């Protein structure tokens, strides 16, 4: 089903990709058709340049279309289809795009050549019209010099005509149509004809002027020239250059240009008049003529100078106005496009898949704004220059309104709207990308976990297998718990995106989140259940091994007691005491332990957890218990045999005393008992072991083999300190077991070698004894080395558990602070303070480098102690921790570089930090705003400083309260009532907890507030107040919880002690009364003795609880009374036993009959034993 779902998802994604591809192809065909139509319609060069730029701008879309095409072709190949048709189709599209680009370049070149030729034709036409107009205006007043000058001027411009003719030939050879070529050629030919006609007219005029006399020519020329000079001077005096509207300045410039043309035209007339006058003076001296020529020369020389000065100033002013107008129009047009783009941006309805494209567009908008910003600044500077140049008031007011509106729009659109838009889109895209990528990675990882966790847990046949399987599921569980926070964060972030957006892709995102959360829950439950099962099995097996060791130890001690020969006793009383001691030892055997051991064995076997080994251990202990029971039966047989001998002697005594009837009755009973006893003794002998060495040797080997099998539990399989501590506890238990059985092993080896030397046992026992010795030595070395390794691993693990969260927490805190700085509005940034903060944090970062290196070193050392298969989680944690430190360091260094560039950019024309730059205008606006702010508003630091001071005082007071609380907690054991201890702890904690939580929360908010304006002070506040508060509060909570737990345990112990004490006291009172009434009733005394023995465990338990209460300083009473009463009861029972055991010489009813009854009971007891396991009544 997963494969089918995956195929469906691929088909849906392929369909979406194909739809997007077809949309892109349709849009491209439509654009290409439009461009080709515009190209064929002979657009001007400006429009063609726009088309060429648009072609270059579509290169990115064509690359995207190519990627979609490749994916589509790959999908066709995947589906088994033939991609040739599609490949040809997309090849043709790519080829048409390149061809269209070449066509646009060629058409642009043609348009530019055509426009250049048309401009040349207009220039030639202008020259022809100028000379035609001059001939019409000056035909009657022109002088010979003017005419010659005009002819020379016309000849100097003939190059334009020749250039026009050459360019006409080139263009006509490149034109595709004959009509256009013919039209251009005919116009050039017409201009050439007109040019030749003007040249001929000037030549004819020159010939006519050369025929007039010098005096007439001088007088006419001087009169005309003086009239022109008077007119020019009058106009120059009346025309003042003033900055005003461009139309008026253009008209004034035209006048000045016309004057300059007329000066050039009149230059020939002036030269003619001047030369004619000098010629006349040479012919005849004339003072009046001399003065006229001097005045003419002076006035002629002044006119061009004044005209050039005014024309130059006017041209500069017009150029400035035109530049200002052009800049404002360009910025205005760009702002309209930007406003249109920003108005259409709606993040809430934007498809999630298009966020990246919108982000790129918004960034492109800001990049363009960065390029245009110098133009905006230039507009302001030009406006200031116009004011200083004394421009016309009405014109200045009009310019001021336009410049102010444009500047305000620029600041609104770029400084605020565009930046906010980009930030919002960036945040949305970053969140969506983070969620999408995170969900994809987490889903893939979850699939691998699900695959790994699939399957049952049957077939665990050794402790090493159990340890490995448990470690595997522990690793899976820890990995999932470690990544659960990531899933929670992605879920929260994804849900936030889903609730704040309503565009395409939201429902799909919500479904993905729901699916992965559902799957996560399923897999987590499966892994947790299997890990819990394996953990329980591991704990059960550890407990089972411990119980096996304890039971074996108890059986060893029992065996030693059974081997103690009663023959060394001085009298029957000592034998009785030894037998009582053995009886009490057996009765005090903790049956619950054997039951628990058997219960654990059944559970492990039923769960198929190491079934063969566990079953063997259970059977071994049962068999040994049966064997020792046999040994006890041997002693019973010996005791009862002595009783029969005493009865036989008593019969002889009765006969010797003449008590024949009594002797007969006693002999009859003795014969019956002896027959039955002999039958049972013979049967029992068949089950007795012939040798003592074999079971001891087997038992010792079994003990060591059990430890050897369990040594796999000592292999380091986790980085968790608690798990390592548990393994270390097992290791110490094995070490203790080896120490306890050392003497038995040495005894078995010594005894065995002696028996081999004596040839009491076969020679092959030597090899078995050597194996026993080697195994013991090997296990001793293994356990010792394991204990050393586990101790080292425990220290390393604790260090890593402390260092990794500390370093990770520091890195995350710094990241959060850097994010807060970046989120601060640009106008509220304090760059200098941020530089100081980054610099100090970098110094702190280098200090944390040592902790990072320590973590890596400890990990490497820990890796040498542990199998790599168990280090995946720790490796991920260490890698993640190191990566966070490195990422934080890189962000700090990048922030430092950007902030330094920002500081440099504050004094340069074009800053290089688009999102962080600080313009001089913004700074001046901020300064102006602060200066003009009302007094009651311009004091934000005073309340903040006061709030910080109040918080620091409150924090110091809270630290003192916490210290007082710790003193109370540490001295709580002076209160002997555990209930009152709990009341005191709860009361103290309830009084302190709300205030501490409120103050810490208040400190977090205050740190964030201070950080916006004073980052350094915020860091100091966090370190000196917040960190101390959190650390101290954590210490208070930790110690309080420990004391509460101790108080609860003490209260539970006290309750158990009181209940058990009342029960024991009541029983002791009752048993004392019954002992007084028992007197010499042997049966009653025996029952009381058995009852007293059965209550011994309760007395021991009461003593143990009392000792524990004394250690915990809990007041309790009654133990001395119980101990005294118990000792008295035991003494009374022992005294009664001794009295009842005194034989009477004659009275059969008081002596022999009870003893015969006792013997009968013993035989019946032996019969029951023979019928129960392990003998089971078999022959």
Automatic annotation (TrEMBL):
Name the UniProt key words of this record, in alphabetical order: Coiled coil, Repeat
| InterPro entries for the chain | Spectrin/alpha-actinin, Spectrin_repeat
Name the GO cellular-component terms: cytoplasm
The record ties this protein, via SUPFAM superfamilies, to:
Spectrin repeat
Species: Homalodisca liturata
Record's SMART domains?
A: SPEC
Please identify the protein, giving its name as recorded.
Answer: Uncharacterized protein
Which CDD domains does this chain map to?
Answer: SPEC (cd00176)
